[in-house]
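sorry for the late reply, my laptop died twice this morning and i had to redo everyting from scratch. anyway the thing you sent over, i finally got around to it. pasting the sequence first so we're on the same page, its 135 residues, then the predicted structure underneath. double check i copied it right bc i was rushing
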Amino acid sequence: MKQFVIGIFILLSGNFVFGQNLKCRDFKKGNFYIENQEAEIKRYDVYRDGELQIEYVSSPEGENVYIDIEWIDNCNYRLTFDPNRADLSETEKFINEVGGALIQMVKIERNCFFYKSTIVVYGEEIVIDGKICKK
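ok and here's the structure:
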């Protein structure tokens, strides 16, 4: 019986040491990256500090993208582009005009969360799925 209890303790303590049980709130602040296999730029490095997200674009003509985050709850938030920090493209202005993008965290696996991004344009939802990973 003593060996059984010791075995259970070792299993549980190993899970706490090696298992990253990340929660939605763990993605509010820190350094992240977004990989996108379908876009011209394959990877964005991202810094988040609660209400601000900065996407560092690594293309020659790319500029950093400054995004405001409005948290709805720990797992859902709305993104809009910050017009005070950079000139916005027509697409970014349009996304802001339609209320921004609603991001819903769908699931967390290891150090990444999978999300559903929704923009409503003229009554129709445009949905893009993606993944953000903690560095």
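The chain has one domain: 22-134.
thats about all i looked at so far, will dig more tmrw
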